[in-house]
Predict the 3D structure of the following.
Amino acid sequence: MSVVALPRLMLVGGGSARQIPTVLSRLGVSKPFIVTDKFLNSNGTVQTVTDALAADSLPHRVFDDTIPDPTTDSVEAVLQALKEGDHDCIIAVGGGSPIDTSKAVAMLAEHGGKMRDYKAPFMMDKPCLPTIAVPTTAGTGSEVTKVTIISDSESGEKMLCMGLSYQPVAAVVDYELTLSKPYRLTADTGIDAMCHALEAYVSKKANLFSDQMALSALKAIGEHLVTACNEPENAKAREAMMMASTCAGVAFSNASVTMVHGMSRPIGAHFHVPHGMSNAMLVPAVTEWSVEHNVPRYAEAARVLGFSTPGCSDEDLSLIHISEPTRLLSISYAVFCLKKKKKQNEIREKEG
């Protein structure tokens, strides 16, 4: 038997962010506190949400001072801002950092204490302030997971906090919000999603439900990640990657991740390496260490990602696929940079 946890409501598809008043109505809330970052608040992304709220005359307030890799201090600042108003829910707009921040704030707003009181292995399952997650990257899957990652400002520890308290009550998954993502962010978050799916699939806690989510994500990533990197406005690739990210998030939240993510957290905490990049750095070494204990599953993941060739054995596949996604992205990025440099040179020639 498997225990599966999901958001109560999910709105999926292009333009779904403009339907957020419908989500609030169905949840019985009407006074949202929007948590995001300054970039998303300045480039028009948050405006998609606020315009929809204003059109329905729903009062709201925006807090855009979140930081990458949220800390206990930054969470406390958001919590204090929340308490200054009369709000009955949080709308988290952004990548993993604004969403993880919102999850922590929603829990503390109801139950108090400090985040270090709730770090794993403590399980926090009590109801808290409703959080509606609106992801703007295709990678973290935080919109559907029952975990949040917060760094302790005093010790520097990157704390894993788990439980149903951190499960958003709703997720609004709108791929159109990712169309402006730059290459590097697309690649980093895409590899993060791949790691979520792969780790969930080879985890000892894998189950029939998480397997279906993981394999679906791996297939989409294998088919669309490089295209999404090189063709940022390719709607088909962006939509596929957004769904892959969500499915991968569902997979690992209902199974587990592995040492890749376990080792990635301290690297991020101490060296501030982008999360997807640190995962990509760790996948080959961790897989080399663990692959012999689950060759069939690593091989199947390789097939689904599209790295198989006729006559290729499970043993060969289980090893080759771990470096192939990052190799493809490296080649693709090199081509991208060369094209960009060529275009810049052409512009200089015209101006000169």
Observations:
- Strands lie at 9-12, 32-35, 61-63, 89-94, 131-135, 147-151, 158-162, 170-173.
- The first strand starts at residue 9 and ends at 12.
- Residues 331-335 have pLDDT under 50 and may be disordered.
